[in-house]
Design brief:
Elements: H1 8-30, H2 33-41, H3 50-72, E1 78-80, H4 84-95, H5 100-118, H6 122-129, H7 132-154, E2 157-160, E3 164-167, H8 172-189, H9 195-209, H10 243-268, H11 280-297, E4 302-304, H12 308-313, H13 319-329, H14 336-340, H15 344-358, H16 370-385, H17 389-406, H18 415-434
Antiparallel strand pairs: 1-4, 2-3
């Protein structure tokens, strides 16, 4: 029989200990989503229940992070994505007047499309065909979208009849948001995994002391499985006018997944001997299932979180780390009363900072070549100004193909990209006809 190498048991124990520490660290860096996601989805006017969307959020985090650990064997947390949740609530439901069960059905069908792409080589073909400039432009546009919503929730930006928007009034609420922003920035600067949670907790505590929020009668409650779970309307979501948005959600999820899985894997050394991310195909499939299951459970689509890098750096290197993270999410099912007292001023700084961090991709934009820069620019400005990821992405795809053709660079456009541009034009036409 082969004898174990000296120190093998100690190394295994050390690895397991690192995975446990890493899994807990990843949970701390992503736990803010348990409060922030329901506050966005259940914002006034959507009709969605806060307790129901909190339960749905935790279920997505737990089940899909667990699947990431057991099936993909990767140390990534999976949770409802920032950006898509704001698009879901503010653009699809509030902006277009789509009933929330229909909107959940759209998330479901986007997940079905994502799964179909993930089990075929098409996913990698699309990923390689979309230029880096367009991926960066869409990320920056979504970042501006989130930042604008955060500024609005903080009271720093308000509606104005003449100028559309204006600077808000400096009051106690704005002061609390600025304090929360300062605390989060300082903690992020120190690489603290508590940055977002500490800022949210501090602002909520001060707001409670000032009487701006009321403490709940009970600190804990049973999960709400009836308000939004399995309440999606898959048939209504198949309206022709909603097809462009479903496709845009799918593409956005695909970009988020590839960016997170590839970027974090390379940054933390989770690559094979060829430099390829470990088990990328399985990771993408879990992300696709996270979108599909989110629609069923009652949330906007899920994706791998880039914050997982903190846990990986802390020692989480295998799927065990994701299992630990998933188990940490379970107790959050019972904190709806506590989460419900968190004011918008406490979560607004999170939106602003996440948006600001997404703007870091701007350094990769090709500003010296107009045929590359203008399509990315369209994504950057149209996403926040139209409150629509759909419009920004579709127009960017079309502009890329048209400008490259007009400047004599048509051969540089990937054949798949020509197909994507053609589909985008068809989707915009359908949207125009059906509206």
């Amino acid at each position: 029989m082969n004898q174990p190498a000296p120190g093998g048991t100690a190394m295994a124990a050390s690895s397991r200990r690192g995975d446990v520490i890493g899994g807990f660290t990843t949970f701390l860096t992503t736990a803010y989503i348990v409060v922030v996601n329901p506050s966005i989805l259940a914002t006034r006017g959507t009709g969605m229940s806060f307790t129901g969307t909190l339960t749905a959020t935790v279920l997505v985090c737990f089940s899909m992070t667990l699947l990431m650990g057991l099936f993909a064997r990767l140390p990534f947390a999976v949770a409802p994505g920032m950006g898509i949740n704001a698009f879901f609530a503010y653009t699809v439901i509030l902006g277009r007047g789509v009933p929330w069960p229909t909107a959940l059905g759209m998330i479901f069908w986007a997940g079905v499309l994502f799964v179909l792409l993930s089990v075929t080589p098409v996913r990698l073909s699309i990923a390689r065909a979309i230029p880096a400039s367009l991926r960066a432009g869409s990320a920056v546009g979504i970042g501006l979208f989130l930042t604008f919503i955060g500024l609005k929730n903080a009271g720093l930006v308000v509606a104005h009849p003449a100028t559309l928007v204006a600077f808000g009034r400096l009051d106690a609420g704005v002061g609390l948001s600025l304090l929360g922003l300062l605390v989060m920035v300082l903690l992020l600067r120190r690489r603290s995994p508590f940055a977002f949670l500490a800022g949210i907790a501090l602002v909520t505590a001060i707001a409670a002391a000032l009487g701006l929020v009321r403490a709940p009668e009970h600190a804990f409650s049973a999960p709400d499985f009836s308000s939004v779970t399995l309440r999606l309307d898959v048939r209504a979501a198949l309206q022709l006018s909603l097809l462009p948005t479903i496709v845009a959600i799918c593409f956005t999820d695909l970009f988020d997944s590839i960016s997170s899985l590839v970027g974090v894997s390379h940054a933390t050394g989770l690559v094979d001997e060829r430099g390829e991310p470990l088990r990328l195909g399985r990771g993408l499939l879990v992300d696709a299932l996270a979108t599909l299951s989110a629609g069923l459970l009652g949330s906007s689509s899920g994706t791998a979180y880039i914050e997982s890098a903190a846990g990986i750096e802390a020692g989480g290197r295998t799927g065990l780390s994701a299992v630990v993270t998933a188990l940490c999410f379970l107790p959050c099912l019972f904190i709806a009363p506590i989460a419900g007292m968190v004011p918008p001023q406490a979560t607004a700084p999170v939106l602003i900072l996440v948006g600001a961090l997404m703007l870091r991709g701007a350094r990769h934009l090709p500003v010296d070549h107009l045929e590359e820069w203008i399509p990315a620019f369209l994504a950057i400005v149209l996403i926040p100004l139209t409150f629509s990821i759909t419009q920004g992405m579709l127009w960017a795809f079309i502009a890329h193909a048209v400008l490259f053709a007009c400047t004599g660079r048509a051969r540089e456009v990937h054949p798949v990209m020509w197909g994507v541009a053609a589909v985008s034009a068809i989707l915009l036409s359908i949207e125009r006809i059906a509206s």
